[in-house]
User: What shape does this take?
Amino acid sequence: MRITRLVTGAACGATALALTAPAAAAWADPGPKAVANVPTTFEPGDDLRVRVTGCGDARPRTGAGLTNEIFAAAPAFRRDGDVWRTVGATRTGLRPGRTYLTEFRCGPPDRRRTFPLEVTVPRRSPSPGEDFEFGFDKVKLSSRTVTPGGEMTFTVTCPTEVSARSASFAEAPEFTEDGEDSFEGTATFKETLPSIVAIKVFCADHGHVTYSTRPDEDDLGDGGPKIPKGAPNTGGGTGGQGPGATPFGGAALALLAAGALGALGARSLRRRAGEQRPS
Assistant: This one.
């Protein structure tokens, strides 16, 4: 009887192995995969070469119901042995340094599989001799006064990406490109502002600048050289602000009519560099 039980157990074990073998084979199947060849000289709008494996006889496609952030139109694939290939024109609005997704799908109706293609757009390489320096002259403010619940628009020249941060923002600006290397975004301030308002404007890979109502406070962090206080700004141009001053931010942005604006909690911005200026 014991021998019978051992034989039965062995048979059961063999049956179990036979049942799990197909499952193991299915698990080993990597499924469809898309790969793109992105040259270092790639520019938005250029063509991309894509190859897809794992679809068998089923033509891969993208379109309705699938994400397509990369291509201007759904690319058409042609079969090359076990591989499907295509060349597709990319969208012109792709941004350097960002990663974009397009989904493809292949297979019969009852076994369709969706798989991704992710492409990171190479950052632009400066031309020989080109040396972009980000500073206050690259930022224009719609107003030099911070008002509770008010808005401020930033117009920034930058060859990469722009962002702005402040603990005083109720809504941070979403920058959109309104020209070559030019970005614009509008921030909304909180209804209640702290005693010191600081705003940092960033140009990716090129540093940042900091605006503040109190640039001489030590607790604002490393903002570079301190900007001396200047004469009150009456809106009459650059007078009294030092050499190199501009209407959107000169050498110093002095307090504006503190007595009149104090009741509203309005504050005039002073600015300071985000990095130590080169000697």
